Amino acid sequence: MSTTTVHLVRHGEVHNPGKILYGLLPGFRLSERGTRMARLAADHLATADVTHVVASPLLRAQQTAAPIAQAHGLEIETDQRLIESGNHFEGLRVGHGEGSLANPRHWPYLVNPLRPSWGEAYRSQEARMVAAVRDARIAAEGHEAVIVSHQLPIWITRLSAERRPLVHDPRRRQCGLCSVTSLHFVDGHLADISYAEPAAALYPGAVDATGGKLT
């Protein structure tokens, strides 16, 4: 009987002085606090039997993966399927000025929250993330793999694994900064899911992807 675990790690806090929704924009790096969060995630996984580390190509994910890979003497593999979801509001301060939902130019993108119409479809995210998890599980068969990605793709993966509807309230996502969502497989079949927040002590005052305070 073979047991394999795939850990889904969300990146740490991002340096975002403009408090915009940065999405797929290049160059957004971890803040100083985000770097400390990444180290805590690495400490949390230090005793795990990690043989494979793969990350989204975006800088913040690569920086979060770095201390995890280093702790296990591994190179980071990059997988485009792990990238953040696209969003019409990218580059804007959501709820303020040009990013205000009251702005008529945004209304055509708000007609279908079930898809959602403002960004990449949930089903599209599910398909690419499930495929990436499958490949990571195979690469680490009998051991553990780490995937570093972004909040929404990770949450969609968990909803899919738990056979729950992909449509959800964003305020109810259980996917904090540098959190670890672990998928435990036995002989290739999902047996259990666990969740940890090794960087929770650094959450007070931290800023999320839309520029809002976490607490």
CATH architecture: 3-Layer(aba) Sandwich
Structural class: alpha/beta
Q: For the terminal residues, how far apart are their CA atoms?
A: 43 Å
**Helix and strand pattern:** EHEHEHEHEE
Instruction: Please summarize the sheet with the most strands.
Output: 6 strands, mixed
Helix content: 25-40%
Mass-distribution shape: globular
What is the top-level CATH class? Answer: Alpha Beta
**Helical region count?**
4
Strand tally: 6
As an assembly, this protein is: single chain
Strand content: 15-25%
The gyration radius over C-alpha positions equals 17 Å
Going by CATH, the homologous superfamily would be Phosphoglycerate mutase-like
Number of domains: 1
Rounded mean pLDDT is 93
Q: Give the low-confidence spans.
A: none
Query: What name is given to the CATH topology?
Result: Rossmann fold
Labels describing this entry:
alpha/beta; Histidine phosphatase family protein; globular; PGM_Phosphatase; Rossmann fold; single chain; His_PPase_superfam; 215 residues
